[in-house]
Every structure is written in structure tokens, then in C-alpha cells.
Amino acid sequence: MKALALFSGGLDSLLAIKLIQETGVDVEAVHFLLPFLDEEAEQKVRAKLTDLAGQLNVPVHFVRLGEDYLRMLEKPKYGYGKGMNPCLDCHIFFLNKAKELLATLGASFLVTGEVVGQRPKSQHAGAFPKIDEDTGLAGWIVRPLSAGLLPKTIPEEKGWISLDHCPTIQGRQRHVQMELAHRYGLHFQPPAGGCQLTNKEFGRKVADLLQNEGKLQTAPMTLLSIGRHFRLPGGLKLVVGRDAKENWKLTRYFLRHRKDQNLLLIKVGRIPGPVALGLGASDDNDAILAARITARYCDLSSGAKVSARVLSSAECDLTPPILVDKHSGFEQSYRVG
Fold first, then answer.
1. Quick check: helix, strand or coil at residue 323?
2. Fold (topology level) of 2-184
3. Which pLDDT tens digit goes with each residue over 77-92?
């Protein structure tokens, strides 16, 4: 008998796997990689989760989400939380994806680390029936951390597993989980703020893309975690690097997409300062404003004049230098995040 566990890397999902292993069932895990992770972030996630699951000898299957996830994010059935976080829709989406893997992996049911009342949007008593209805998985999702508060599942009724040894956790308390982790000798990652979509600044960037572009696309979404973001009057999206690492990421994005239309790469003079990436159609006014905003973050005294070079994509056209001066504060009216 085998089960497939949704694995976030958090303590709850680790404990859920361990509790099901104690029933004698083999467990494999699946983690869904969100489409706005860049390559470096994805590699870190893969390494971290592989290490965490390794202490339970559980293989992790990584599934990178794509355009279908973004379509859900654009118009979630159950709406957003305080940010651009469609928590209930997102969880339903993950479960539907996991359901597709059951036959492929030879698994009989799903396991999650959900706790009744832990999350206001997706983990409360009223949410679970919605999840069951929308996924068609009623009775096939085992939630061992709150087993005593929930109806018996089909695997229990069939005698495949017994959850008598499982805790009955409710709410946002963590002491029971901590005690279990200590008993099992598990190392785990402490909570770190949750999904990026719950972050208000990140959410503003997502909302700005959706409002101005009409739809979300994977490539621009990978830029949302880096740089300072601006939306200029003509519609140009400007991302200004904050350090050398981000400058390289923006330059690499431009080089990889240089055959696309409507990309700009901006560098101010031969002085320390950022690289900026412009996305979308632009006019001369936007190009000048983009150069001024880039100059704002250069190592210059206020009011100093400097030349900026703008490289356009497609034909990789280097425009004549634009003479700009450094002034502080004006750029905030265009700031997205």
C-alpha cells in the first residue's frame, strides 16, 4: 500500500508523512514549484526539500506549475486573502494535480499536513467540504494531524490504516507538533512567512502585471522577487536592480529574451549603480524617465548629470546616450514595489 503526500517542507507535512508511515504504508511526496520561482530559487527549494524528506527516506517528486496555475491565479473561484493569495483555490489546484499522479505512482490515497483552524482561508472546518467537493476526493484525503476531529476516511473504513495513534490538533498552536518533532528526532525549517502571494508588496506586483498586461505570463513573473518595480505613464514596466546579483539576473533575462519585442536594458555611465530592465511598449518619454529613475540609484551626488545607454531588444539596437540628472523622490510616484 502506498500513499502520496503533499509536501510543503514545513513541519506539519513532515509529521503527516511520519504518522502515515507508522501505519505501515509506504509514502512518496510531491511538491509543486510555483511558476514565479527563478532558477536559483528553484534549485534551493529542491535541495532543501530533498534533504528534509530524506530523513524519512521519502522520495520527492517535483512538479513545476505553468500557465494553468496562472489562469487560476488570475480569477480564483473563492477569491483572494489579504494579498494576491487565493489560498483555497490554490490548495484545490494542488490536490487536483496530485490526484492525477495517483495512478502513475501506484498510490491509493492522498495525505496532507492540514490542521483544522490553522489557516483562516484554507484550513477551517468549512473549507474541507469545499475542497472535497471541488476535487472529487471526498474520503480519499487523509489529514492525520487533526484525525480525531474529522470523519473517518475511506482508507480507514477499508481497514488499510488506523489513525488511533494520531494527535487531535486544532488552531494555530504548535506545541504538539514540536513535541512530536522532538520525539521523532526530525529537523525542520521554522515558519518563514508562508507563500509569497501573501506578501502585500509581492501581491501589488502581481496585481500590477494583471491590470496592465491583461494576463499573467511565466517569464515576467520570475522577475517579481527581485529589484525595485515601477510602472511608467506610457505603460513601460521598469525593474531596477538593487545589487550586483540582481543586475546580473536582469541582464541575463534580457539576453535570453533578446529576440522578443519591447525589452530595454539600461545602464547609467561608467559608475557604480544598477542595471534596469524595461518590459513592454515604450516611447521616448518612457525611455528618458526610465534612465532618470535608474540614475536615481547610482553612486552620484544629487543633481549631477550623467549619460545613460539604452539597449533595445529584437534588433539589439543601442540608442544614442541620454543625458540625465540625479534627483531623489520623484520616482516614488511610479513605484509598484
1. strand
2. Rossmann fold (3.40.50)
3. 999 888 888 989 999 9
